[in-house]
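User: Structure please.
Assistant: Input sequence and predicted structure:
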Amino acid sequence: MVFLHGLFGQGKNWTGIAKQLAGRHRVLLVDLPHHGRSAWPDRFDFAETAALVADVIPADEPVALVGHSLGGKVAMVLSLLHPDRVERLCVADISPVSYPEGREFQGYISAMRAMDLTQVVRREDAERLLEPAVPDPTVRSFLLQNLRRDPTAPGGWSWQANLDVLGRDLGAISGWPEAELAHVAPYDGPVLWLAGGRSSYVQPAYDAAMDRWFPRNRKVTMKDTGHWLHSERPEVFLEILQRFLGD
């Protein structure tokens, strides 16, 4: 199994779910390009990102691929461009459509870039500096997972996420690479499409696009759940995923 995180995330965000599956599956938690400890290419491009992830999947051993949010889009593109690498696909709270470029994400990037990291001695200092721009403590804590100690940086801290490219290419990240996929066949493997009942990322209006690209999809809505399905209700998420896997 291969797990792909969302924007500003890291592979380790899936650790709790992965531990529950490790007894029956070999599990790989991937840091997407521009995130965590992965490389920083010159731009964000879905096809290129999917190719980089495909490179870590053995050509003769297709996987169950799970992606949330941005990771879900990468997982969908990977399944379409490299279907031989994917035995089955789980897409968590995202659709194969272009979304309006989220101001909140641009705001998060601007706030993170504006922080004077030379004022950070402890993580509590980073919390204080980011709080005016990001008052939600859950979101703030999630963003600050990207802050790491770096003896080569001024002040001894740096961001693991490639804020410059992610901010510049946020339009591409919010979009869907329709032109690059124009001549690609639909993915014919089984697809679990998970939606948060309180999230707007999966809507009935998007069903046609999902059916076009992934005709064997089954949509399951997790009630009373927002965008962060696997962290908000991990037990329910895990149960649905295990049924999909046939465990």
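The longest strand covers residues 86-92.
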